[in-house]
Amino acid sequence: MTNATDNNLYSKRGSEWSKWDMHVHTPESDGYSGTWEEFKTQLKDADCAVVGINDYFSVAGYKKLKEEINNNTLDLEDKIILPVVEMRMTDSLQNRNTETNGTTHFNFHIVFSDKLDVDDIESFIKSLESGDSIIGADYSDKTKLKNKKVSFKETLKKLKSDKKFEDNFLIWLPYDEYGGIGEIDPASDGWIKEDFIKKSHILGSSNQNQKDFFLWKSELKTDGTPKFSQEQFKKWFEYKKPCIKGSDSHSHDYPIGKLKDKDSNPLEKFCWIKADPTFEGLRQIIFEPEARVFIGEKPEVKDRVEKSPTKYIESINIDQNNGYDEKKYGEWFKEENIVLNKELIAIIGNKGSGKSALTDIIGLLGNSHNKIHGGDELFSFLNKEKFLKNNIANNFHAQLNWQSGDFEKKYLNENTDTSIDEKVEYLPQKYLERICSNIDDDDFRQKLNEVIFGYVEDKDKHSKNTLDELLSYLTSESDKDVSSLKEKLHTKNEEIVSIEKKLTESYLKKIEDNIKNKNEEIVAHDRIKPREVEKVTQNEDVTKETQEKIEAVDKNIQDVESKIQKLKEELVSITYAVEKLNQAKRSIERHGVEASEIEKEFGPLFTENDLVFSDVLEIKIDTKKIDKIVLSKEKRIEEINTLLSDPIKDIAKNPLSTESTQSPISQDNLHHQLATFKNDKKAIIDAMAKPEKAYQEYLKKKKDWDDKKKELEGDEASPLNGTLSWLIKEKDSIADSYKENLKSVREERVTLIKEIFNKKKSFIELYNKIKASIDKEIAKHNEDLDEYNISIEAGMQFDKSFYQEFFAFINQGVKGSFYEKIAGLERLQKIISEVEDWNNVEQIVNLLSKIEEHIDKDSREEISDKDRQKDVFGQMKQGKDPVEFYDYLFSLDYVKTKYDLKVDEKDLSELSPGERGGLLLIFYLMLDLRDIPLIIDQPEDNLDNESVYQILVTFLKKAKKRRQIIIVTHNPNLAIVADAEQIIYVSIDKKDRKNDYSFYSGAIENPEINKKSVDILEGTLPAFDNRRLKYRKHA
Helices 476-502 and 724-735: crossing angle, nearest 10°? Predict the structure, then answer.
């Protein structure tokens, strides 16, 4: 149930901006023009909320007005009047006002609390000494009162000595009437030297330079340093002083509320004070002298709300659904109507009082995207373990009302929709805890990117909607360069894998086995060497003519065989050339297509800028000559194939073919010629005598045997694959050249890695250019940040998705450096942790070298040296290709250019969770440009440093100037020192399961709010005030 505010003076919305005119004279002041009736009409028409009834040494006018108000003969509606007495001091000072130069007795004002008995104020005034008499002697003569003088210091002394006036008066000194508008010189300024300003609570001036001076804002010297130090200001004033201004109205026709120009004409300029319209509200300006006073047409926040009414919550309604039975689960919410301030709202209460209930409901209605993340519920009240349990939330609904009159309505069991923009930015406590404890979560980095993009000027966004889109657009051409380097890397990895495969133990064993088998095959071949047949002498069986015929046929056979071998070699060479030429043609045509795409993409841009694309890039592609050469070579291939075709083998391949279906055999066909010559030789031999025939058959077998042995042993100079010579040479290469080759090719790969890295690192310059605007914004806050050096850095960062990708290839079930899931992961993490700077390519190259070493050798301590040797092939998961593994490992896809939020050069991972929490909160408050309401649940729980706490307070004050902020806190001190405009005290009566939700809201100056804050702090009012005083001194 909502608690009503007892006194209408104390707004439930807390401190709001309203117009105050604390310098209004009545007919009781000498020189006033007009009657009492005219004055009352003037007062009713006043364009302000609070009027200071300000007469010379008198409260007679105030007293008369109060009597009429109490008697219901005067209705000022919502206007409040406060008693103010204007007095002239006996002290005379050199007047610095250029218009009234000379020695002058200046006036000062005493603002009294309206809770004082007016007779006590009057008695005090009458008791003051003026010359040889007291004020009371001439109290009824307003002419004489105007010319009275009293001692400023004695009057102040007398006020302070009377307990009735303790904390019930304020001294207001109109500085601009004394100092004019000129530069303030503390060395010669009498009011400063004589401590008049130090002893005053409030100064009177609308001059911006003077207001800044009394707020300790020093003008700068020519070298850019402050002319006056903070220590000097403290010595002169003790505290910062607020400046207000009144109309000094003396006539019934002057519009009360409006300030005057130098000719006493009314301006559209007012004195605005942000406080309850009470004396306690006015006292708040001495604690917040800058934030609670504005002199001008309108405070910025009012203008912002008028221009963006859909960004400010006006109120929240929470109620039960029709038919809900309170007996089952308790009352909870019933006809709740909670109005909200437009600046900083602090929700306070004891633990378990339901503070987060209100912010969760606002988060739900405002479609916060932080309700659920990764399956985890982040709302602490609207979750399945609390209010959603047993479907309690199904029985309640709520409505969020915007300042514009629009509203959002939901049942409390509904969900938010992340596909729709959120209308409030809600940081539940669990969300902050999640980011503070889980630095690997990209949620915050995504938020960081959003904020950085918000600072990019529209002209530099290139019509992109997100930072990722912009970066992708700006790096697209460089990405193509990286892709080209990756293609080269892939080729190099294929070469490396090919060599590594030959360096494996299994390959060596295979070669050794093949050598053994080949030797055995040669031994077996030697056993079947044809038995030598003695050559028959010529005069026995064969004529010289027959011998010459055989030799001629043998020569023909050798010539044809030689031609066949040469043509085969030519065929290989031409076929290779045709393929390379076709590849070249395809590459050229691809570049032509790319050029056309470039022209299609940028052509309109060139036209808009009076450029001709062909003047910049002109590619003429003519592949006719390539086609001509390819055609010529293909024709030669066809000729060679015709010459080399083997009719006998063709028939063997196609036994169903007949002579009628076969093409006629060309006489130029070499296999046909070879067969013909062999047949001729056979015919000659067949015609020979038996001894000669046997000898010729021996020669044939011997030749076949020699050819086979040569095929088995191979040519030592250039052995063919599979021969004994090749196998021996391959084994020697494994021991010698392959290791050197691998080392050389790996070095070539390192060169490619560095090229890829440098190309990726070049993006940093682009990233820095993009964040230049946000760097300037951070620099504006350096003084507020004090020693808390916040920066956003762009750099190369390790993406921890690497671990998952790495072990997608490596089988941790087989023995090796990364054997077993936990141990293997820890070993890899240890290697990765040795990289201190991901912007250093040498450290990354060393990292990759170490990973290679761990793959080549089992690095586990318990492994003996003889069992350490490993290879990549034995550690791959089934179906995984080592080339693909190397492509991932050495492409550096896991080294990415990212932004990081840092403090003193330390990134989030190096900060404690408490420091991290402070940094994140300051980030949201300082840099987040979104203007929707920001809601933070218990921000102090994520802080572990007093200095961070003070900085948080500073930025809460700054952030509330540009957006509505709601914080939940169990420490009212945070609300007090941050000068929350509205404090909402929340409680739940859980007795007998009643679950009655109630709240009380108002400003800091509201006595009831003050009391409830003290109760939570478990202290006393003096202790509470001391905290406020301590902060005031700090400020």
Answer: 120
pLDDT in tens, 560-570: 888 888 888 88
59 and 199 belong to one structural domain: yes
Choose among 27, 82, 87: nearest CA to 56. 87
The CA distances from residue 548 to 161, 299, 544, 702, in Å, are 152, 124, 6, 20
The stretches of 385-466 forming alpha helices (DSSP H) are 429-437, 443-455
C-alpha angle 401-407-410 in degrees, rounded to nearest 5 = 105
Among 357, 360, 319, 320, which residue's Cα sits nearest to residue 337? 319
Q: Are residues 568 and 696 in the same domain?
A: yes
SS3 193: helix
- pLDDT tens across 692-742, in order? 778 878 888 888 898 888 889 888 887 888 898 999 898 888 888 898 999
Same domain, 917 and 898: no
- Distance between terminal CA atoms of the chain? 38
3-state secondary structure of 810: strand
Three-state SS string across 282-325, please?
Answer: HHHHHHCCCCCEEEECCCHHHHHHHHCHHHCEEEEEEEECCCCC
How far apart are alpha carbons 870 and 672 in whole angstroms? 55
Of 114, 7, 107, 8, nearest in space to 52 by CA: 114
Count of C-beta atoms within a 10 Å radius of residue 145:
24
Model confidence at 909: pLDDT above 80: no
Name residue 517's amino acid: N
Average pLDDT of the residues in 614-641: 88
Specify whether 167 is located in the same domain as 291: yes
Neighbour-count burial for 54-77, b at 16+ CB within 10 Å, e otherwise: bbbbbbbbbbbbbeeeeeeebeee
Give the model's pLDDT for residue 730: 87
Residues 897 and 761 in one domain: yes
pLDDT at position 269 over 80: yes
Name the strand (E) or helix (H) holding 794: strand 790-798
* Domain count within the chain: 4
Q: Which of 73-77, 88-92, 896-900 has the highest mean pLDDT?
A: 73-77
Sign of CA dihedral 640, 643, 644, 648: positive
Strands 80-95 and 50-56: parallel
Residue whose C-alpha is closest to residue 293's, from 305, 281, 304 = 281
996 contacts 988 by C-beta, under 8 angstroms:
yes
Residue (of 1001, 966, 975) closest to 12 by Cα position: 1001
Residue 1000 lies in a domain: yes
**pLDDT tens by residue, 138-175:** 999 999 999 999 999 999 999 999 999 999 999 999 88
Question: What one-character-per-residue DSSP string does 371-398 give?
Answer: SEETTEE--SSSSTTTTTGGGGGGGEEE
Structural tokens at position 428: 């539940």
Identity of the amino acid at 768: N
Structure tokens at 923: 């980030």
β-pair partners for 500? none
Residue length of the chain = 1035
Q: List the structure tokens of 952.
A: 């948080």
* In the predicted structure, residue 668 carries a pLDDT above the cut 90: no
Query: Is the domain of 404 the same as that of 547?
Result: no
Is 406 or 176 the better-scoring residue by pLDDT?
406
The three-class DSSP label of residue 409 is strand
Query: β-strands 344-348, 982-989: how paired?
Result: parallel
Residue 665 near residue 672, CB atoms below 8 Å:
yes
Buried b / exposed e over 851-868, threshold 16 CB at 10 Å, is bbebbbbbbbeebeeeee
Contact 337, 315 (CB under 8 A): yes
Which two structure tokens, joined as six digits, stand for 1001?
């809201």
At 516-531, the pLDDT tens digits run 999 999 999 999 999 8
DSSP three-state, residue 428? coil
Let me know if residue 203 belongs to a domain: yes
Containing structural domain, residue 178 = 17-298
